[in-house]
Amino acid sequence: MVSYRITKFNPTKRNEEGHYLDDSEWTAISDIGKAQYNNVTYQEYETIETAYVKSIQLILREKNRKSLRIDSLELYDTKEDFDRYKKDGRLRNLTVDFENEISILKNKDELSLSQIEKFTRLMLRETIWMLLVDRDIEVRFGYDYYMYVKCEELASETMDAIHNLGLFVEPNVGQIDYKIIDEDGNEIK
């Protein structure tokens, strides 16, 4: 399997150690409207968020997958938090039913393509976190709008299509190794 770092960050703006050097680049939904991040607008934010969603769809299409499973689920926010997110705009253009969509989530749940889209957006908006996995695909989000995908080598057409969305695909760069553990403490391979 090959590990890919897929981000909105242009690799030419990294130093020799791989650190991104442009401090004016936004890294979270909470950066919208802040002067130090060039007053990024919600529309600009959502364009990039959609590119991440579409990149996952492109990879799943190439790998002939229609679903992924949840692993390593982290749910810390409450219904009250989600109500606040609705009011403050964090959930703008998303319909989220906390009781019927969020609170019921558990590891090993299988997510359809439309659920993957919604939960990817929620992860990017820092409201939930999970790994999206299948027997030979893993999708993980790190800090600062980094996405890591581990799968069999991607076709150049898929990488080009992701690049055309405005994202950068970097094979074998920056991947942090991690183990996926089930509820019983057993490593899942």
Q: Unreliable segments (pLDDT under 50, ≥5 consecutive)?
A: none
- Would you list the SSEs in sequence order as H and E? EHEHHEHEEEHEEE
The rounded Rg comes to 17 Å
The overall pLDDT, averaged over residues, is 93
Strand order of the biggest β-sheet:
3-2-4-5-6-1-7
The total domain count is 1
Major β-sheet profile: 7 strands, antiparallel
Structure commentary:
- A hairpin with a 5-residue loop joins strand 5 (137-141) and strand 6.
- The protein is globular.
- The two termini are 12 Å apart.
- It is α+β, with helices and mostly antiparallel strands and 189 residues long.
- The protein is built from five helices and nine strands, in the order E-H-E-H-H-E-H-E-E-E-H-E-E-E.
- It has one domain.
- A seven-stranded antiparallel beta sheet has the order 3-2-4-5-6-1-7. Strands 8-9 form a two-stranded antiparallel ribbon.
- The protein has helices at residues 42-62, 79-88, 98-102, 113-124, 156-164; strands spanning 2-7, 67-74, 110-112, 129-134, 137-141, 147-151, 168-171, 180-181, 187-188.
Brief characterization of the structure:
The chain has 189 residues and is an alpha+beta fold. The chain has helices at residues 42-62, 79-88, 98-102, 113-124, 156-164, and strands at 2-7, 67-74, 110-112, 129-134, 137-141, 147-151, 168-171, 180-181, 187-188.
